[in-house]
Amino acid sequence: MIACPLPNIFERFPDNQARAAVAERRVADVAVAGTVADEPTFFVGRHTHARHETFDIVTPHGLHLRVVDNVSLAPPVPVHAGDTIVVAGQLIPTSQGAIVHDTHHCPGPGWHRGGYIEWNGKRYA
To answer: Domains of the chain (ranges plus CATH)?
Structure first.
C-alpha cells in the first residue's frame, strides 16, 4: 500500500479568492494560508474598545494581508515571523492591500459569520 501525502497547507487554503477580491476591490469571506511577515502588535479598537492583535501575512503569490484579530473574543495567537498559518475571516480591500478581520467565533445574532486562525495544529476562534 502506498501512502498518499496530504496536500500542503497552501494547496488546501489557496489565495485565489483573496487575490480576486483585492483585484476587484470587493469584500469577501476568505480562508487563506500565508507566512507571518512580522511580530504581532496589540492595540485597543477605536470603535469596539476591545483589545486586538495585528500582524501581516504574505501568501505564496505575494499578496500582503494585514490580520486584525479581536483578542477579547478569541485568545491571542502566539505567532512569530516565518510561521505558516491559516486565516479565515472577512477580507476588506484597502489602499495598501487588504485586511482580514472577524477571525474569531461569531459572538451572537447580528454579527458577521465567525472565522478563525490556525497555527501549529490548533484553531483559535
So the answer is: 9-124 (2.40.50.140)
